[in-house]
Write a structure and sequence with these properties.
Rossmann fold; six-stranded mixed beta sheet; alpha/beta; globular; five-stranded parallel beta sheet; 2 domains; 16 helices; 11 strands
């Protein structure tokens, strides 16, 4: 496949594997922060190609997985309302709330529609002035500009029947929360390239300096991940810290300035609760006060709904990198893609889904 095959070359991958093997002189723990990177890593077996003492820890970089349970329940409450057309990307439809999921509510008669862009939801609002159209705005900084554009467009058109249920989270505060935790094991990060395409990587420089760790902005193909691991390991072995950019074909230090300006017009930074992790200060976006009319939580008065996590699901420990999916007693038995206990088993970027899909529940880990 043009522009992709060059990043999947087995001979080139072996060169990186050999180089990493020569570099590693002691145990190291590195975290890939992005769920998309986790899936590539598990599918390609990259974690198994690394030396035994070099461990890849899977991080909380799956926005669906870290969406708190009570927000799923709020989505369910809104989606059940007869006047509402509830829209979402497909990866949210099977994420379990306290008792059910959006797909089940749809089967019971709820008007729930999968869309491919938040602007599709704006179009639906335009076409259905008698209905309330809600878009489930979930994601990291990567998807935030498109969601901001949807709100901005609705405001310009004065569409009073459009709103978003906002669950945007930010990567740098999550990295700091991991690094500052007393049980932290992470010594270096592979940062999410798509987030940095929007935001740049200047935000990571003070983190690298404060915690004296290497952070390498990394892409999503197998060679990207191996290159990122090599650069991180090289810095660790040499005692260096700072930020390097492996994903230079897409990322600059300053990022996409027009996208950042739009984010500033629509959103403001807020404290945000992460599923399985808890509240992280200044780790999310919410709509600015002047655009609060487009806030679905306020419009439908569901902001007080709370929920209790399943005691059988260890998603929080997995998302913080403390455990691997196969270390969960429910993995592959009481928790499967057909009957998930938590979001990491059904999200397209969830670590549990990656381990299940690529057979890690069927063979012993090395």
């Amino acid at each position: 496949m043009r522009y992709v095959d060059e990043y999947r070359s087995e001979p080139e991958a072996q060169k990186f594997v050999d180089a990493i093997g020569r570099l590693a002189n002691q145990p190291w723990n590195m975290m890939e922060i992005c769920g998309g990177q986790t899936h590539t890593m598990i599918k390609a077996g990259i974690d198994r190609l690394l030396p035994p003492d070099v461990a890849m820890i899977h991080g909380p970089g799956c926005p669906v997985c870290v969406t708190p349970l009570e927000l799923i329940d709020r989505a369910l409450a809104i989606a059940r309302r007869p006047e509402v057309i509830f829209t979402s990307f497909g990866d949210m439809l099977r994420v379990p709330g306290s008792t059910t999921d959006l797909l089940s509510v749809k089967s019971e008669g709820g008007d729930i529609r999968m869309v491919y862009s938040p602007l599709d939801a704006v179009k639906l609002a335009r076409q259905n002035p008698e209905r309330q159209v809600v878009f489930f705005a979930v994601g990291f900084e990567t998807t935030a500009p498109a969601n901001a554009m949807a709100v901005w467009q609705a405001a310009q058109e004065k569409l009073d029947n459009f709103s978003i249920l906002c669950s945007h989270v930010l990567v740098p505060p999550a990295m700091e929360a991991i690094l500052s935790a007393p049980d932290n094991r992470v010594q270096g990060f592979l940062a999410a390239g798509h987030v940095c395409t929007v935001m740049g990587y200047w935000e990571y420089e003070p983190i690298a300096e404060r915690y004296r760790i290497p952070i390498v902005v990394t892409g999503f193909e197998p060679l990207d991940l191996l290159h990122g691991a090599y650069l991180t390991l090289k810095a660790l072995e040499e005692g260096r810290w700072g930020v390097e950019n492996q994903y230079s074909r897409s990322v600059t230090r300053d990022g996409n300035k027009p996208a950042q300006e739009l984010l500033g017009k629509v959103f403001e930074v807020c404290d945000r609760k992460w599923r399985g992790i808890g509240e992280i200060p200044a780790s999310g976006y919410r709509l600015r006060d002047e655009l609060a009319v487009f806030d679905a939580e306020r419009r439908f008065d569901v902001g007080e709904l709370t929920a209790q996590e399943s005691p059988d699901c260890i998603a929080g420990e997995i998302l913080r990198g403390l455990k691997k999916p196969h270390e969960c007693s429910a993995f592959g038995t009481r928790c499967t893609p057909e009957k998930p206990l938590g979001a990491p088993m059904v999200s397209t970027e969830g670590a549990c889904a990656a381990y299940y899909q690529y057979g890690r529940h069927q063979v012993a880990e090395r």
